[in-house]
Amino acid sequence: MALMMSTDCSSLMTSRLIHVNSRKGAFSPSTVYRPNSASDRRGCTLSIRSSSSPSAIVIDGKAVAAKIREEITVEVSRMKESIGVVPGLAIIRVGDREESVTDVRDKKEACESVGMTSFEVGLAEDSSEEEVLKYVLGFNDDPRVHGVLVQLPRPSHMDEVKIRNAVSKEKLVEGRYCFGTLDFYVPCIPKACIELLHRYNIEIKGKIVVVLERWSSLDGLAITQLLEREDATTLSMFPPEMAEKFTREADIIISALGQPNMVRGSWIKPGAVIIDAGTTPVEDPSAPRGYRLVGDVCYEEACKVASAITPVPGGVGGPMAIAMLLSNTLTSAKRIHNFQ
To answer: Is 340 part of a structural domain of the chain?
Structure first.
């Protein structure tokens, strides 16, 4: 069951503790907050305003994802016409959680929209690890499949590392960060963060970038390494009580905490760029599903200070993350078949 939390930008009153699952001094989603209404979402253009403008430009992940899908469609068609190969993505889903079923459906629809083939295996929640590994190994050997994904979340009785490591390196399109190196494919969320900055022509080189992350987050570590490749000055892995001090000096803030509305407007340097990769379900009886998604950054406050900001939803996650998955799958197919 998804973690349900409530937050309010104007009030950070704690109602109950859920859990702590991180090293001492690291950020963790350990508190629940009371919500207010979501902020208004505005349109955007592909330019960055000066800090004197009245509101931030919205970095529209949905629009960028749609553009990337168009580009992938062209490449998939070219590959099919040239060598008769259609990229294929295999998804193994364990259990029937609503969010997992919806996410897999969205990925399959995205594959269809760009001309890729998708394969789905649905297993019961109590399926054995051996059964999952059997399908993983089968897809590893299947020439129609160029990407293999075991859908998150995975049941607690399964060895996360063992399952990930069972996927062929060439087909691990969700990406993997291996303690200092990005292994073959860049993980989808970090890749989406950097891609959005590039697509909006936001300068990274020489900028001070603060990354708010859980100490155990491999996505956070991957984002940091990608930024270092761009010659940014990156600050991360500091105690939570120092977060505000560092964000006030940042040209770019990338947050991937899962701490709703933690980053306030007063934490942000005027004109900074905000990439909010934190997504938390927040109780909302008026929403169709009884909840809405809230980011790490208090949008109502941040949009009055920042020059550009990603909304939640509609920014880093969802369509944009799926577009990165399709991009990695296309790259895999090209590598496997030596297609330029």
So the answer is: no
CA–CA separation, 211 vs 31, rounded Å? 21
Q: With beta carbons less than 8 A apart as the criterion, state whether 294 and 282 touch.
A: yes
Count of the separate structural domains present in the chain:
2
Same domain, 313 and 205: yes
Same domain, 207 and 294: yes
d(Cα 224, Cα 275) in Å, to the nearest integer? 13
- Domain membership of residue 310 as a residue range: 14-59+200-317
Task: Show the tokens assigned to 241.
Answer: 């009580």
Q: Are residues 209 and 302 in the same domain?
A: yes
Q: Output the tens digit of pLDDT for each of the chain's 340 residues.
A: 333 333 456 433 222 222 222 333 333 332 223 333 333 333 333 333 344 445 899 999 999 999 999 999 999 999 999 999 999 999 999 999 988 999 999 999 999 999 999 999 999 999 999 999 999 999 999 999 999 999 988 888 999 889 989 999 999 999 876 555 666 789 999 999 999 999 999 999 999 999 998 755 667 788 988 999 999 999 987 777 889 999 999 999 999 988 999 999 999 999 999 999 999 999 999 988 888 999 999 999 999 999 999 999 999 999 999 999 999 999 999 999 999 9
154 by DSSP, 3-state: which? coil
What is the rounded distance in angstroms from the CA atom of residue 257 to the CA atom of residue 21?
13
Answering whether pTM is above 0.90, one says no
| DSSP code for 297 | B
Q: How far apart are CA 189 and CA 186, in angstroms?
A: 9
- Active-site positions? 100, 107, 151
Rounded-to-integer distance, Cα 16 and Cα 30, Å: 9
Q: Tokens standing for 169?
A: 């390196």
336 within a domain of the structure (yes/no):
no
